[in-house]
Amino acid sequence: VLDGDLHLVARRRDGGLWHRRRHGLEWSEWVRAIGAMTVDDPALVVAGGALVLVARTGTGELVGARWAAGP
Q: In 10 A of CB 2, how many CB atoms?
């Protein structure tokens, strides 16, 4: 939960990570969180007022996404 919103991150069978957010009673549409295909479980933390997602690709590259709190 970040700033009262519930965030959900899921990995599809193809390795892509997708994100959606629930604000109040409404869910956003699924959007691709990271364009690269990932191989391991991602790390998802709240740090510095933001939600940070980090994952590793098949080539070992670290990729990530960030969502800031606020409107």
A: 15
Contact in structure between 19 and 12 (CB atoms under 8 Å): no
Q: What H or E segment, with its residue span, contains residue 52?
A: strand 50-56
pTM to 2 decimal places: 0.82
Query: β-strands 43-47, 50-56: how paired?
Result: antiparallel
HSE of 70, CA atoms in CB hemisphere, 13 A: 6
For residue 5, which of 33, 24, 30, 32 has the smallest C-alpha distance? 24
- pLDDT, one tens digit per residue, over 15-63 is 899 999 999 999 999 999 988 899 888 999 998 889 999 999 989 999 9
